[in-house]
Structures are given as structure tokens and as C-alpha cells.
Fold this sequence. Notes:
The protein is mainly alpha-helical. The chain is built from 1 helix and 3 strands; from the N terminus they run αβββ. It has one helix spanning 2-48, and strands at 90-92, 103-106, 122-123. The longest helix is centred in the N-terminal third of the chain and has 47 residues, at 2-48. The relative contact order is 0.14.
Amino acid sequence: xxxxxxxxxxxxxxxxxxxxxxxxxxxxxxxxxxxxxxxxxxxxxxxxxxxxxxxxxxxxxxxxxxxxxxxxxxxxxxxxxxxxxxxxxxxxxxxxxxxxxxxxxxxxxxxxxxxxxxxxxxxxx
Length: 125
């Protein structure tokens, strides 16, 4: 019985430390994905002399655009993944934060624009 109580006390002190670690790992993964997509968008801009339109979206990094496929030298990324919370990354051109280029972000844990704390957006700004 004493061993069970000791294990319970140890679990109660260790488990809360790992709960925050999962969220931190997802934020780090989202930041890494955003940096990778941002790099791909810059390479797209170098080849095409423009950023993707809103209609093309991020899909143009994997598949050539219908009207400009002769300049396209992709795919610029292997596959377009969702963020760690299962939502697609958001792209806006021209951006609100970067008016001469684009905004790229994950809506975070809450899946909605804006938010604070664990629901905050993770972006390239």
C-alpha cells in the first residue's frame, strides 16, 4: 500500500510537467513549418516574380499554376501539411503585418483567428 501511495505522489508531481511539454512541442512544430513554407514562398517569388495569389493559395507550392506553369520550378515543398492541431495554415497576400509581402500563420490550438495564451496565433510576424 505504501508503494502505491509513493507512486501516486510521484505521478502527481511529474505528470503536470509533461502536459505543458506537448503544447510547447506543437508550437515549435508550427514555427518550424511556417519557416519552411515561408522559405518555399520566397523561392516561388524568385522564380515567378510574384507571390501566389489568394486564389492559388499555398497549393501552388506543390502543384504548378494553370496560367504560369512555364516559369514554375517546383514543387517547392514535398507536401502541404496541416498545422499540429489539424488545421490548414493560413496565407494572406498582401499581408496585414507584412504589407509588401505575405502573412502566414497557424490559428493555434483554438483553431480561430486571434486569441491569447494557448489559443494565440503563431505567424511569420
